[in-house]
């Protein structure tokens, strides 16, 4: 049972994971693949609002989609964008990456092969992965300008049949742990974690939300 105390702690993590960037026009939109098709819809929305002339979809099959989907995440995302009205010539696809670091590194390679060198990116990710994606991108591509966004939803409205609330909370807890430990591994730039956010994390771990913790 998800109590009001659990929801209050989870809300602290949800709010922290958001970067709250104000979006302005950029050179390209980079949408990171996952199980969440709403990310593709958000990327298409930004393109149709003329915030960037190019959309890159990055993602092979990751932890959640491997063994569940037969189509690569980026390919599935691109189909959604086409259905929403994004023209094929405005889309690039990188469909081999399996984690956020590879998303960035393989996108770098793709752009180099295409002779493209965008400087300003709009990165689209799941709501609870905004901050970790930002920290990973800036580690691997520090010279680029970056704004991060995600599907516009609340914590209460985000869960669905594919990713129920309990799973969302477990992933948020795991991602916060990674924000703390990954800089030392060279995976991300450091991010300050306020004391009250870390207290909420420790409460959630104590309540059993530890299924997504790194070993």
From TrEMBL:
<dbReference type="Pfam" id="PF02698">
    <property type="entry name" value="DUF218"/>
</dbReference>
<dbReference type="InterPro" id="IPR014729">
    <property type="entry name" value="Rossmann-like_a/b/a_fold"/>
</dbReference>
<dbReference type="InterPro" id="IPR003848">
    <property type="entry name" value="DUF218"/>
</dbReference>
<protein>
    <recommendedName>
        <fullName>DUF218 domain-containing protein</fullName>
    </recommendedName>
</protein>
<dbReference type="InterPro" id="IPR051599">
    <property type="entry name" value="Cell_Envelope_Assoc"/>
</dbReference>
<feature type="domain" description="DUF218">
    <location>
        <begin position="27"/>
        <end position="145"/>
    </location>
</feature>
<dbReference type="GO" id="GO:0005886">
    <property type="term" value="C:plasma membrane"/>
</dbReference>
């Amino acid at each position: 049972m998800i109590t009001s105390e659990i929801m209050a702690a989870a809300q602290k993590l949800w709010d922290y994971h958001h970067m709250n960037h104000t979006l302005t026009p950029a050179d390209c939109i980079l949408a990171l693949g996952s199980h969440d098709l709403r990310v593709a819809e958000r990327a298409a929305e930004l393109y149709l609002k003329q915030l960037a002339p190019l959309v890159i979809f990055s993602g092979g099959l990751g932890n959640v989609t491997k063994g569940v989907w037969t189509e690569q995440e980026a390919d599935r995302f691109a189909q959604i964008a086409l259905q929403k009205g994004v023209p094929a010539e405005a889309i690039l696809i990188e469909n081999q990456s399996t984690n956020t670091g590879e998303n960035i590194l393989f996108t770098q390679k793709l752009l180099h092969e295409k002779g493209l060198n965008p400087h300003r990116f709009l990165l689209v990710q799941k709501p609870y992965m905004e901050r970790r994606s930002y920290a990973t991108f800036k580690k691997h591509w520090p010279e680029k300008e970056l704004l991060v966004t995600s599907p516009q939803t609340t914590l209460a409205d985000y869960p669905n049949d594919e990713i129920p609330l309990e799973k969302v909370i477990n992933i948020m807890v795991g991602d916060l742990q990674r924000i703390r430990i990954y800089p030392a591994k060279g995976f991300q730039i450091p991010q300050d974690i306020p004391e009250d956010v870390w207290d909420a994390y420790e409460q959630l771990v104590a309540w059993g939300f530890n299924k997504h913790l790194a070993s």
